[in-house]
Amino acid sequence: MAVLDFHVEDPNEKPGNVTTQLVHDAFASVDTEVLSNLVDYIFAKLLISKDTYLSIAVVGEKQMEKIHLEWMDLPGATDVMSFPMDELVPGTEDELAQGMLGDIVLCPPVAARQGADAGHSTLDELCLLTTHGILHCLGYDHGTAQEEAEMFGLQRSLLEGFLGRAAPVETRH
Fold first, then answer.
1. Is 173 one of the annotated binding-site residues?
2. What is the DSSP code string of 60-122?
3. Which of 2, 23, 108, 159 is most buried, by CB atoms within 10 Å?
4. Between 122-137 and 108-118, two packed helices, what is the crossing angle to 10 degrees?
């Protein structure tokens, strides 16, 4: 199993915080066991050592907006942000990638809305976003049409292999 560190923010833990049903349901959809199994699957497929470290934080929209503004200078909450550490790339049969992959930050309320708009569950969206975040930590990007085709093709293939069915439809920003 990958060296995986989860931090799931409790949407009710802040004084005076009133959660909506969407926020409550979105956080309830966070299944750390499924996401851990997904990470293990992706690490195996991309030849990444089980000793590789990945942190996943699950935060509300206010916290995600702060992170988004601080790191990207963009207002508003986003779905996922990735912070690579050791600039790892997928390994080879002869040498597995190993080290500190990085940090991924997920925002379940944004994921819930995107999943609903795309016609799939919040958990499917969180799986898609986790995969997307891992690929960003491995240096993949989607700034050009060629990069997007490569990254989204790999993302789709990984998700279909893990889920055993068609991958959820990607959200494009």
1. no
2. -HHHHHHHHHHHH---S--SEEEEESS------SSS-B-SEEEEEEE-HHHHHHHHHHHTS-H
3. 108
4. 110
Domain ranges of the chain: 1-161
Q: Is 132 annotated as a binding residue?
A: yes
To the question of whether residue 68 is assigned a binding role by annotation, the answer is no
pLDDT in tens, the chain (173 residues): 677 777 888 776 454 555 578 788 888 889 999 999 999 999 999 999 999 999 999 999 999 999 999 999 999 999 999 999 998 999 999 999 999 999 999 999 999 999 999 999 999 999 999 999 999 999 999 999 999 999 999 999 999 999 999 999 987 76
Architecture of domain 1-161: 3-Layer(aba) Sandwich (3.40)
